[in-house]
Every structure is written in structure tokens, then in C-alpha cells.
User: Fold this.
Amino acid sequence: MEGLGYAWQALTTTPAIFVAMGGVAWGILGGALPGISPSITMALLLPFTYALEPMTAIVLLASTYVGAEYGGSIPAILIRTPGTNAAAATAIDGYEMHKQGRGGEALGISLICGVIGGLIGLIFLVCLTEPLAKVALVFTPPAYFALGILGISVIASLSEGSLIKGLMAGVIGLMVATVGTDPLSGVSRFTYGSPELLGGIPFILVMVGVFAVSELLVQASEPDWSKTGNMQTRMKLPSLKMHKRLLKPNFIGSTIGIFEGCMPGAGGTIASFMSYNEARRWSKHPEEFGKGSPEAVAAPEAANNTVACTALVPTLSFGIPGSNSTAVLLGGLLIHGLQPGPLLFEKHPDIIYGLFGGLFIANISMLLIGMLILTPTIWLVNRPKPYLMAGIYALIFSGVYTIDHSLFDLVVVLIAGAAGYLMRQFGFPFLPLVLGLVLGYLIEANYRRSLLLTSGDHIVFLQDPVSLGLLITALVFVIGSAWRDIRSARRQAAEGESTEAQA
Amino acid sequence: MKRIAMPRDAWIGVVFLVLAVVYWIAADGIRISPLDGPVTAAGLPKSLGYALGGLSVLLILRSLALRRSVVGRPAAPAPAEEPAEEDEPSALYRHLRAIGMLAFGICYLLVVPYLGYMLSIIGLMLGVALYIGARFGAKPAVIAGLGGLFFYLLFVQVLNVPLPAGIWPSLLGTLQG
Assistant:
């Protein structure tokens, strides 16, 4: 009840309601543009959050995430080009429905199921976050160090591509975090006399660079996406009969979304494809899947919108973001000096419950904004890509300058963008890099504090039961992922041999 | 004699191995402070240097092992030549396009202290739009101009961000003086 009071106060005494609605609108527009993922949409907003109150800033970022997850389904349905990765499953049947002249119905199903999924996810977010955060109260410095190592190991293990590259990205993130003045001894590290580097490399610049600028570099050689043409599409909300039919896929999508969202590294894409498959398995009309089934639109949309809320559980409880989007949100929290975990609930309950209230408003308002903004969104998707990309480039350069009024920041963003482009080309995942950068201080400070307690004896990490448990879990993830890598390599080799034998 | 090319991941591993060594040497040069505890300011960076070096070696070994398993097999008959997709740009073309895009950003950084924010952002938008595929003509210039004006009003007038004014204020001052 106390939490409800905080949420009510936040919604009635701050601009959180308007910010949530604005965030949803921005998220839908950004998510609808192919190539502009929810994390990019959020990263573009990050520089502006500096000037906002902490709670307002966090609500803005979180509601953008919610809106972007729905926005991705609009081009997926209308032009078979998912605006976000998670909307790829929606494109399969959504576009088929559109071809049959049922595009408006598909958009309505996507919107309604997204709202239902988002609200279910929010309930679980509220119920799970605080109890989990309280677990962290027993954490000592060795346990916090081990938690940081676990976070990077899990994300590196579950990221796409090879485990080794994931771990390397995490280590590089930690290396970048060491640049600047050492907070414990005041010694300058890797600054080479540059005053701009004394404060370290702000992770916000790296996030904007690797997510947004690298995407622009990729888009420079990509052809323009398809257009919807002059065809008018009016959204049609599902009837009561259709709602009954969508009950099961909604339940399946939300259930999968709850589990996948809470697990770091899984994310909305896996959840939406899993729920697509499960919805087909449990459907009374599995033969319609792939040919324009409303259930095939409902399940993935419910799943990825549930994930948009439940992915905040590990982020807020332990400060371990499970996806690129939640990493950007974590960045938003840290910018305002808010360290996720139990202390956040004790010191700033107004912000946490204000965020929950803002997410509630974001999900509810998405119903109205989703309908109102459909025409402008289709208009935006139909604009020539060159102008949109030019506008985004200008927005990045203008927005980043607002942070410190420094051109040096823009240099860092460009370098991070080039690095992000190379990472994409060579198959390195972004998230471990960002996580290493964000968790760098937590890991180093607690590592050194732990060793201060034992005069440099590393046994402290094995004597603390929580630390030991977390380090063993990290090891299990790494070994499991290494085993998966080896099996995958062997399978590839075996497939190559059998192909040759057949030839 | 058949020449076996080193796999790409092995090259990446070599580059990172060199980076790890350079980083470790730089970390070794970090000053030791009397405020340091049992772990100095160089402690974690040096450990990270070791970690990156170790992972780089693993990456090299993994890619060479994979390569060996492929090369060790008898050569497969050459597959029937498939017509190359005309629309698919080559890797070199894609990289050059990306470098070009990056160059626009660098040019912006070079000219903005002199031309000021508004002219530079208009130039950036116009250049990028034309580069990505807008047809040359009045339309991109008008859109870039309107876009630049919008960003100027938003950031400089509404948000009061002191974006670079360029040489114009001093030039105008000189002319007036």
C-alpha cells in the first residue's frame, strides 16, 4: 500500500504521466523505423535525461522501451520488415494478414495483446523486484564483486556468437572503465595528460556510439526499406469473439515473457519466437500458422511486451541488465547517481514506485497513443531513408553536445561508433562491452575493498558463501557455454563431412 | 604447394593479443600511490591485460583448430557456380560506405568551431542525405535547411544549449567595430 501511495504521489505531483505518454509515442516512432532498435531509440534520449528529474528521466526511458516494443510490429505487419528484432515473429503472420486485407485487424491484435502483455509483465515486475532486491542486503564486498563477474559471464555466455568473443567484449568494457582518475587512490590511469579523460569515459557516450552511430554506419550501404504505398490502413480492434480466441496465445506469450524477461541475456526476440511455436503447438488451428493466423500475431506481441517489463527485474534488483535496452535504462539510473539494488528501494522508494506508476500509465496510454499515432508512424516509415538517417545523425551530434558542451564527447562517440561497427563485422556482442563498462567501478571497488579486509588474500572470495555461490554459478555458465560452442563446432565439421560424402 | 590462409578469427586474436600486451605495459607504468591498499591502481588493469591476452590466445587456437578440421578433409568438388546476387553489395563496398559516413561526422567536428552549429548541422544533414541516396536538387537542400533550423530552435533557443557559434559573432563584431 505504501508503494501505491508513492506511485500515486509521483503521478499526481510530477509530470510523469505526460512523460510516460511522450515516451510511448517516441518509442513507437523509433521502434517502427527498421534498424532503429528500442535500445537505439532510448540511447538517443539519454543525453536529454541529464536535465530531467531522476524519476522523470527513468519513466521516460522505460516508457520509450514499452512503446518501441509495440512500434516494431507496425512495419512488421505492413511491409514485412520488423522494426525491432522481437517483432520478426510478428512479421510472419502479420504480413500475411495484411496481404489478405486484414492489416488493420493484425495491428489491433498486436496493440491489444501488447498492452495485455505489458500489464501482466508489470504485475510480475512489482511483485518480484523488491523481494529479490532484499536478497542483495546480505551482500558483502566479495559478493558484490562476484555479482559483477557473474553478470558479465552470464551475458557473455548467452550472447549470440562465440563465448570467447563475448568474454573478450566484457574484458574490453572493463578496460575502458579503468580510464580516468582511480576513485580509490586518486591516481590517473591511461589519461596521457588529457584533462578530458580525467573523469573517465562516460558510458553514455559509448552506448550512443555502439548502438546508434554503428547502426548509421551499417545503414550507409543498406538499401531503403519497402514502403506501404498509398494504401490506407485503419486499425481494427479485436471483437469479443476474437478476444476469446486470443486468450490462450496471450497466456502463452505472457508466461514465456515473464520467464525470459527475468533471465538475463534471453530478451524479447527469443521470447517471441518461443511463444509463436508454443502458440502453434497448443492452437486449435495450427494449420493457419504462417498463413495469417491472429493467434500467431497475439502470442509474440504479448511475449515481447511482457519482456519489456519483466526485463527490469534483474536490472532493478541487482543492477544486472539482461538486454541492450535495460543496459541503457541502467545507464539512465547511474547518470542520476541511483545504484540499483536494495538500497534503491530504501533510499528512493518514490523513484522506484514512480517508475512502476509510469510504466502502468505507459501501458494503458499505449492503447490510445497506438491508435492515434498509427497514421504519423506510417507516414514516417514512408519517408525516404536518407532524410531520416541524416536527421538521426544530427540528433546524435546535437544531443551528445548537450551533456558536457564538449566537442571531445563527439569524438568519443564517433570512436565508439567505429568500434561498434567493427564489433558487428567481427561478431562481437555489444552487451558484454556495455556491461563491463557500466559494472567496472562496482567490480574494481569491491575487489579492492575485499582484499583490504584480508591484506591481499584472495581466499576471501571463496570464504564468503554468497560470493562462492555466485562465482560457481558464473563458472557453470561459462563451462556450459564453452561446451555448447565445442558441440556446435563439431556439428559443423560433421555436417561438412556428410555433405562431402554425399557429393 | 597449397598456401593456407590464416582464418579471420586468428587475425583478430593476434590483434587483441598485441593490444593486451600494449595495455599491460601501459598498466605497468601506472604510478603507485601511498594511498593504495594491497591492490594498487594498476592491479585490475594488469589482470585485465592477462585476461585479454589469454582469451586472445584461446580465440587463435579455436580458429586454427576449426580451420585444421576443415583443411584436413579431402577437398570437396567445387560447387556449381551460382550467379552472384546483383543487389548484394560487396564487403569492401559496405566498409567504404561506412567510412564515408564516419567521415561526415569527422568533417562536422572540424568545421563546427568555425562555421558554427547551424551551418554545420545543415551541411551534415545535406551531405548525409545525398550520400545515402537522396537525389541532388533543391529538395534535400530545403529539407536540410528546415532540419537545421528546427535543431537550432530546439537546442539553442528552447533548451539553451550553448552550441558553437563559430566565427560569426567575432566577424560581425569586427565589421561593426
Notes: The mean pLDDT of chain A is 85. Chain A touches chain B through 68 residues (CB under 8 Å). The two ends of chain A are 70 Å apart (CA to CA).
